[in-house]
Amino acid sequence: MAAETPATEAAAHAEEHHTSTGISNEKLAMWVFLGSECLLFGGLISTYMFNKGRIGPNDIGPNDVFDIPFTSVSSFVLLMSSLTMVFAVSAVARGDIRGNRIWLATTAALGATFVAGQVYEFTAFYSEGLGFTTNLFGSAFYALTGFHGAHVTIGIIMLMSLYVMSMRGNLGPERAETVEIIGLYWHFVDVVWIVIFTIVYLFPQ
Amino acid sequence: MSSRLKALVWLSSLLVIAGTIALIVVGIVVTDDHPLSTLSPVGRQGRDIARLINPIFIVAGVVFFLVQGAVLALWWRYRVGGSESGDGEHGFYEDDEFPDQIHGNDRLEIAWTIIPTVLLAVISVFTLVALFALDDVEASEEDLVVTVIGQQWWWEYQYHLDGDTTTAPDFVTANELVIPAGFDVALDIKSRDVIHSFWIPKLNGKRDAVPGRSHDWVIQADNPGRFRGQCTEFCGLSHGYMKMVAVALTPSEFAQWRDNQMTPASAPAEGTAAAAGWEVFSQQCASCHAVNGLTSAANRGGAAESPPDDWDIYGEFNGGYAGPVITDELIAGAAPNLTHLMTRGTFAGSIFDLYLGAGDHIPYLELANQGTLNRGDLEAWIYNAPERKPADADGLRGMPARTGLSPDDIDNVVAFLSTLD
Amino acid sequence: MTVTDRTITAPEETLALPAGPAVAHRPLGVFTRPQGSEGWTSWLFTVDHKRIGIMYGAAAMFFFLVGGAEALFIRLQLATPNGSVIGAGTYNGVFTMHGVTMVFLVIMPMAAAFANYLLPLQVGARDVAFPRLNAFSFWCFLAGGLLLVSSIFIGGWFQNAPDGGWFNYAPNSGLPFSPSKGIDFYAVGLQITGIASLVSSINLIVTVLNMRTKGMSFFRMPVLTWMLLITQFLLLFAIPVITVALFLLMFDRLWDANFFNVEAGADPLLWQHLFWIFGHPEVYILILPAFGIVSEIIPTFSRKPLFGYHFMVASGIAIGFMGWGVWAHHMFTSGIGPLAVAAFSVSTMFIAVPTGVKILNWLATMYRGRLRFTTPMLYAVGVVSMFTIGGLSGVTHAIAPSDTQQTDTYYIVAHFHYVIFGGALLGLFGGFHFWWPKAFGYKLNEAWGKAAFWILLIGFNFTFGPMHILGLQGMSRRISTYRADEGFALWNMVATIAAFVIAIGVAMFLWNIYASTRKWQRAGRPDVGPDPWDARGLEWMTASPVPEHNFDSEIEVERLDDFWHRKYGVDENHRVVRTATAEEVAHDGSNTKVHLPSPSYWPIVLGGGILLVGYGLIYNLWLAAAGLVLLVGAIYGWILEPADDPDDAGHHDDHHDDGDDHGDPAGNGGPDGESASAAAPADTEEAATVG
Prior knowledge:
Radius of gyration of chain C: 25 Å
Largest interface: B-C, 110 and 115 residues
Number of helices of chain B: 10
Number of strands of chain B: 12
Order of helices and strands of chain B: HHHEEEEEEEEEEHHHEEHHHH
Number of strands of chain C: 2
Number of helices of chain C: 22
Strand content of chain B: 15-25%
Helix content of chain C: 55-70%
Largest sheet of chain C: 2 strands, antiparallel
Distance between the termini of chain C: 36 Å
Shape of chain B: elongated
Strand order of the largest sheet of chain B: 3-2-1-5-8
Strand content of chain C: under 5%
Oligomer: heterotrimer
Structural class of chain B: alpha+beta
Structural class of chain C: mainly alpha
Distance between the termini of chain B: 74 Å
Strand order of the largest sheet of chain C: 1-2
Radius of gyration of chain B: 29 Å
């Protein structure tokens, strides 16, 4: 909750306001928050690694459900959204309101595609017999990827809020930093996915 | 009262307090006879620990007196009076006198960083040596391994005379762990439900019983004796009532005890009170409590005649853990094996003495013959156990109340139990 | 059009806090901001870091009384063998709630009180970086605290209180073993207070990193600022770990997940690792603020600068780092394997080094000083003395083999009470006495303060000192009773009697607050001056109580202890001489042109939404849904509310002329001041600022 709102808190005055580090309060807060998020995902990833093998020999496990090509594609989609996010930030910084709007929408759409893929994946796994309560692997897998999905969803909501602000004429170059801060969050969520994808899907089971 | 006099009063009373405490502590160490004390170990491991820690207590004590002495000395030497007023013409301090404004001294800082570091490095060497030595089993008798299983709120001991804990135990007992004196006895500590911790302070430190895991531990007693223990990991409602006893016997007595434990019980003679008691027992108690030779092998808990089929399902992914399947039922299903109840000095998680006067002056092997049964506690326990020891019996934990039993029923059950020696 | 796109030019003096837009378009009704800084409602909507700090302190004191009452029940139950004051079930709830309350609802928020009040002042800032988030932190903490404490009463006395110990080991925390709602309260309540701590830590870190006044480089910051900053970093990284653990526990209990389900193959040690990776840094979260407070008090009353400032800072940082590498010393008997035990045993021993450096530096500061044993100084020296005992006993169980004898016995109980009570709590109490005049404008009575200190100290030592002996004699922790023949009766009785002595000491402390307040009011609220102790930090460079805008103009700092050096110089003989009085140097709070953020409705609404979600998760998901609606609404209200009060354009109601009040020491606070009731400590600040 903490870092989702700095966008509006005095962001308009950031430029004219001196800070000790030269970084605006809002941006610094986002960095600090992301530091904390590292430990959150660190805890979840550790839990997953600790628990994923603790299933019986006949239990449904990673090898039974994972569809690596499918998840690779959705991972690629999420990665691309980082690129479009960069375009959105640079557009707003140079005052290209329309470009900014387009890239924000594209980023949100790519993120939504990823989340849709995750929903599809969860449904597929569930139909194959892997529920949240099925075994230790199921609980750990859904908790970790679900937490990440929730983060992406919150990111999409923030992007859409930016889009609405832009439509109402409130997202000019003077608010470029707001877009940049939300971009930081977005990039972080993407990077975390790279780690999760590698550890959960690609590591030998 | 002048402020100096005041300070003197405070100082001297502080010194008196500190001195009293020091005397008390020393007195305790010297005259310690507490049954659970860690200060007077009588086993190899406990002694090794004490040998490691006692010099460190002394070092810590020296540092303690140095620091507290420094505090008092600085206070005495550099205090200026009149702290109450504190509103002189120059503000809080009534004068403008200043001590030297020393900001620090790097050499000093480095010195008092390095000196304790070196001191601690020395201590850590001794610690590591002791730590690895404690895991050794030096002189074990035969291949005895005892699987110690904690559950809410008592301990079960499964004796594996051949040391193979993956097979069914030779015999099973509860609450009182009997060992041969003078020998290292290997323990294999497990749990059926939550985490417990096995601790006989006079013999060794504690080791947790963690469900799904198997922990090795060793205890040894120099001489025969009875040593108290207490579960030390919080294990729910009746944690405080989960105690145990370790009994060390001479090797020959141990052999005698062991042979007796392996004998199944025989049915009481027809027409006796004990036979009537067995009737009640088999209906009311035998679904949980095993009595070898009388109750059927299908009874859960206690000495199953052979391991259940799924004995090893956890072994595969739980670090080699091999033990009974943990199910909800087992929370209630496991109850002490009563085959030789009367040979034990305590019951109900060792919170009650089975014999009056704790049977203290009776040789352990003679308890059943010479002891005077503590009928009051035993009957009250059978009648309404949760009243004597909090248990969530409805939640399938602990021994349920048997308030439906008549006084005669209870007398008969006690008569039956009295035959289990 | 609710978010304004116009800004005013910055005020003449560039102040640390961004100036909000003065002219806003008139927004829809609900989106106005509350006005004024008078009356009790102004406390609900305040975003002023000082008022938030005071509320943290008041809430922590309330919870302290709750936790203290629980402690007395524990002691009564254990006073005699086979105690029957409370049953085993209640006892488990009582000791669990005692631990949870004291750690999460007393020491942490008490430290937060000092962090909120003092950090901006000590770095010369106008407020924290995000004032509304700061208010939210407090309300969120209060929501979590009230949720936890309500578990004592809901559904019967201790029927639904957490009963798994503050460490709450799995699988005893699972539904089969703890079927009441207690553990749910624990999991949800601590997550809520965790959110509060996390938000607060981000806010305060940004404040210290970003809002330091001109010239306030890192090594000119007071040691308290440093220690609080390190504490916030520890919180930042430790809270998410416990949050993960609590999430997993909640999933297990509410939605049948398998994280700690041993039947399904889980290893209960996962909880222990997660908990202690949080739990050990938590120990330093508790103690470092007190170290900072002691480092402020001792130099002041020794009339010397802190000895070895850089080493004090460095040892704090070292503790902050090393605190992450020692967690498994809580698990020496858990079966983590001899190599892990060896490694953590050694790392734990060496964390004693930086702590020892601190003790020695405090002693060196006192050496050849001019020591004035005021109440705060007594508490500070008490910390040095008592914490040393806790530190030394800590070394004895860093030694893993001996820890197998000591862990989970009363020896450990004695150890951590010497650290947390003898270290953290005494330090915080000393801080109360020290900064009380700064926050409220009058000193607490010294005679009562000293008497309370000595009673507390004696009671403390006779409560927890004997526990060392009990532990070595083999008395286990968390047992609700013990047998008569185990020989624990004597020292338990001593500890119980002494626990009531502590209660008397606390009562005297509270009475002192009440009596000192009354006396000050009856005496016509005399001005205590900006710097009643001849102290060193920037917080003393403004009027007492601190005006809402903190400083009249931006301060430029040239060195460590800048305020002190403004008062004192060195003559040709290198002797310290006074060059100015505190009154000459300090700001009088008369600048009324400072623009401050307006109060806000939304932080408390958001806290209320979280409280509803909390109860909803435990009892009924529909309630949680309602809470979620409120929560989302509050977030939107928060975002959409104007940066300022539109009716108030051009002038600022929220910092009316309280500065004049302090400029005129004879002033009685005006007619409003008389009508304001000031029986409770929190009210006095209000009364004092009413002009």
